[in-house]
Amino acid sequence: MRARTLTVLVIVLLAAWVAWPYGSLWFFGKAVDSEDTARLETMVDWPSVRGHLKEDVKRRLSAELGRKGDEEDEGESVARSALLMLGSVVAEGLIDAYATPKGLMAVLTEIAHANGEDGRFFDTVSYAFFSAPTQFRVHLRPAGSDNDKGKGKPLVLIFSFQDFKWVLTRIKLPLDELENGPPSE
Questions:
Q1: What is the pLDDT along the chain (185 residues), one digit of tens a residue?
Q2: How far are the Cα atoms of 28, 114, 144, 161, 177 from residue 154, in angstroms, in the given order?
Q3: Is residue 103 a contact partner of residue 32, using CB atoms and an 8 Å limit?
Q4: pTM summary value
Q5: 17, 48, 75, 137: least buried by Cβ within 10 Å?
């Protein structure tokens, strides 16, 4: 009898653990749909989101500006380094200015309106599942894509379990899409 009770308890706890991030995602989506920036602010670890965005943009800038030509002279190398530093400073300033509850709300509602007639957050979700026991990954379809067959890479939201709740800790932009320009119709 005791083993059976323990088994049931473990199953209930596992089911609750699996359901918990989906519930948090539902509340996150409701905050986006109702454009409740105050609620959204509490559901995001802003320093983490800003830090990851800055790292991603710097990595992308380094990859683009770090490519050397066959016949690059010292002047071109100095110019490339200066552009990288300037680009990093500008990118950091833009991320600090736009990685805010209002900025995130604007991006998510724009994607939602581009993907569905009702403009609801959940119309954009194409994937949501654990990527680790304490990380939950959500893919949002690119703006204007049809169902799950859209062109381009998704915007990825990563939620992490922190302080006994699930919060958004990272936004992975489809930066490699920038290399090719906008998708052709």
A1: 799 999 999 999 999 999 999 999 999 999 999 999 999 999 999 999 999 999 988 888 877 776 655 556 666 667 767 777 777 788 888 898 889 999 999 989 888 888 766 778 988 999 999 999 999 999 998 866 654 455 678 999 999 999 999 999 999 988 765 554 444 43
A2: 18, 14, 11, 22, 10
A3: no
A4: 0.82
A5: 75
Q: Which amino acid is at 10?
A: V
